[in-house]
Task: structure prediction
Amino acid sequence: MMKYAILFLVPLLIGFSPLLTDAHNHLIPHNSLPLVDTAHHAFHVSIQQLGPKIWNPVDHINVWNYAAEWHDDMEQQPDDYFRKNFPYVRYIQLMTAAGGSVERDLFKDPHDRSVTDDYDFSPLIRACRNIVRQELTPHLKLGNVPLKYAANPEVSKDFGVNVCPPYDYNLWHAYIKAMMYALVGEFGRKNVQAWRFGVVTEYENKSWFSVADDPEKTRDAYFKLYDYTVDAIEQVLGKNSCVGAHSMTVSEGLWDERQLIAHCARGKNYCTGKTGTRLNFLAASYYDERPGKRVAGNVSFVETIDLLRKAAIKEGFDKLFYGVDEGRILSGMDGKPLFPRAVGQTWQAAYDARLYRILMDTDVDYFSHWAYTTHGISSGIPSVSAQTSALFYKMEGSIRLPLEHHAGKSVPGEDIGAIAAWDKQRKKLYLLFYAYSDSLHHAAIREISCTIRGIDSKSQKLVATRSLVSDDSNFFDEWLADRERMGITADDFGWSSDSFVIQPPTLKDAKHVTFFKSREPFYRSCAEIHPVAEQFNLENGMLHIRTDIPLHGVMLYEIAIN
Result:
């Protein structure tokens, strides 16, 4: 939150010139303004030209260890915790929900291989009960097979779960069927029908599912696992169940993920003997290697989704929805893995906003996040990712307006973008701008102008609220300064020092965690957005906005049209 003298120039509006203030509404002398780059970006919008409805693409959170995160921790939170703190979240994705390790296998005795039906679904039911209590919907990742169902279980070094198929698929079928009955008994059939189910995380990743690293044997074993899982779900929930599959796609897998799509369309179902298997959605992973650098192969987000979508349409699946079940950034600038796959620097805000705009452009339903605060999802200090999601969520249900973008000086690695939306019911115009750069530490200000035509208003004075995600709404720069002052270096971190989750195993030394906690009230005050009220003059149904945005910033205008 290290201050620019001012975060943006005051909009130069027709007949309107407000006082200059900083984020805390302190007056700023004109001579303290930073120099503005000449890279001017002009946007043009017509409120009469309407596009598709804007949906909420940030409604998923994926959970690695549901017992740790959705048992005791979440039971301590009030029923409206998510509604107040993360109103944009709708689905909670529980990874390896059916087992794959002693800790996750849902039996009274996971070690006793002589008994195969000593089911104990209470840990899963407990987590789902807390999800439902928060008025959220479970998304269960099934597929990793319990240890005692595999002839020779092999535990993945990367993920700590069994990667082998069952020695008897009928045992697995009975297990999933019993699980569905237990969930229906607790929550009701109609409610569970509204849940989502996946079959294995990254199904073509040999570290998640494999038969001796053999592509064909692994592929066929997965087809069989998928067919038996879907049939068990359908026998309890009927044909209204929602089932899909999650592939890597952004990275090369052991076998071609598109073969599953062909199998579901026209392959012989291993469980029923009929042709084809239910498929409602396809999800992928999407990771960049580090800030500003894509993964090996330089695969883009659009290319990742297009590979799946084109294969699905070719096979006749033209009504699937698509999502990203995990992703963003693998490693920080120090080369260590990020926890939670996102950096704490303000750069992440523009990265996220740009990504959400691409989701809108490519009709991708959701992008699932790992965490939003310094403590994951419970009681932590909000990250700029949380702030950006909250701003984007405000536009849900509005109608997107086409934008014309005329860029001035082009700067390599930058993307200055925008989304415009009109909510007819609330009579509100939304303008969201972001200033992305591949460079994590590049500081600059970009000039933006926006002309909106076709405004039908009884009043020539329009009231607006401007919210800005920037260093001034981020605790992380204060945390970086404190780390330098305290002599905390990258060596003191188990995960990347760029991570915004600040708890073990990110910080290795308990005294450093204690220090961070002692500063939490201060950091929390730094992580606040201070909306600014503005007034605009309307002239001949036309509105002109001229403003500045700091690089990596995200800005939302909410303009009431009376």
Observations:
- The longest helix spans residues 215-237.
- Confidence is low (pLDDT under 50) at residues 1-38.
- The chain is about 25% helix and 20% strand.
- The first strand starts at residue 40 and ends at 46.
